[in-house]
Design brief:
Keywords: Signal. It comes from Allosphingosinicella ginsenosidimutans. This is VCBS repeat-containing protein. Residues 1-18 form the signal peptide. The protein is α+β, with helices and mostly antiparallel strands. Helix content is 23%, strand content 30%. The chain contains five helices and 15 strands. The strands form four sheets. The chain has a five-stranded mixed β-sheet, with no helix packed on it. Strands 2-7-8-9-10 form a five-stranded antiparallel β-sheet, with no helix packed on it. A three-stranded antiparallel β-sheet has the order 11-12-13, with helices on one face. β5 and β6 (77-83) form a beta hairpin.
């Protein structure tokens, strides 16, 4: 009995001991962690959260890599653990506590996989309804978000702004692609694409200027078809699709040797590829682009 009580006391004391030795971070401060710099478990406290970080070694082909295992806890709620990408021990994973609304804070976890053009995975841990909820915001090209997501359109909801990665490599190389902005909200426990709302027009107005110029006036031997796809998509968001489409028809290159994205004869589950037998091959770039934009809900026809 005495041994059981002693063991229970040790278990209860462990979190308190971890917190006593915890580092402190301010709300909005980026914590850039790497296994090389912190090979042993470390704990931070920020904005009412306790952030326990420990390195984990990858498995199988990733056995020479490590990732951050992050356990997030706060009083009165069960802790949750999220894992970053397996990567070189010297690469940093980023954790930030930020304001969610006037009454709550959340944890933003960003993890880079390494490699050219890809990928930063992003997760948000949000307290709601007496529990911590993990939202997977997907994998995105590019560096970590230095500027924290904010409420852009003034509706009281944090807006996560990315680029629509479906446009990368669709009609041209990565360097010749120009993906449109894409805005996501977390609403009632779901990720919702809100890019078409009027409050985000300034994002598209800013991006479309360069896209239009690169589409209509490509330099040297650059293939403009990838940029033109992004330009037409952004114009659709702004209600200027017909004019942009006419410009694209005059500007696109017809002599490009690039596999056009196929359509599919049936609706596929998310992240599941269309079987070869059901794929639709389009005869030219405009036809493929039109169906591409329909499938991604930029246009209806």
């Amino acid at each position: 009995m005495i041994r059981s009580l002693f063991a229970a006391a040790l278990i209860l004391a462990a979190p308190a001991a971890a917190q006593r030795g915890a580092r402190t971070a301010a709300v909005g401060q980026h914590i850039d962690w790497s296994a090389e710099r912190d090979p042993r478990p470390v704990t931070y406290r920020a904005g009412g959260f306790t952030l326990a970080m420990r390195p984990q070694t990858g498995e199988g082909e990733s056995s020479d890599m490590q990732h951050l295992s992050l356990t997030v806890s706060m009083p009165g709620m069960a802790p949750v653990t999220v894992d970053g990408n397996d990567t070189s021990p010297r690469y940093e994973h980023r954790v930030t506590v930020a304001d969610w609304d006037a009454h709550r804070r959340y944890v933003l976890f960003q993890s880079f996989s390494g490699g050219a053009h890809c990928c930063t995975s992003i997760k948000a841990i949000v307290p709601e309804g007496g529990a911590l909820h993990v939202f997977d915001l997907g994998e995105h090209d590019g560096d970590y978000l230095d500027a924290l997501p904010r409420d852009i359109d003034g509706d009281g909801t944090i807006d996560f702004v990315f680029r629509d990665g479906a446009f990368l490599y669709a009609f041209s190389s990565y360097a010749e692609s120009y993906p449109p902005p894409q805005v996501w909200n977390i609403v009632d426990g779901r990720l919702v694409d809100v890019s078409s709302r009027p409050g985000f027009r300034p994002l598209f107005e800013e991006a479309i200027r360069d896209a239009r110029n690169f589409c209509l006036h490509p330099e040297g031997d650059i293939n403009p078809n990838g940029v033109c796809a992004g330009y037409v998509a952004m114009a659709a968001r702004l209600g200027r699709f017909d004019a942009a489409w006419a410009e694209m028809l005059r500007a696109y290159r017809r002599d490009v040797d690039w596999d056009l994205p196929p359509g599919c004869r049936r609706v596929m589950p998310e992240n599941e590829a269309c079987p070869d037998a059901d794929q639709i091959r389009y005869p030219d770039y405009p036809e493929a682009l039109r169906h591409f934009l329909i499938d991604l809900h930029y246009i209806e026809r």
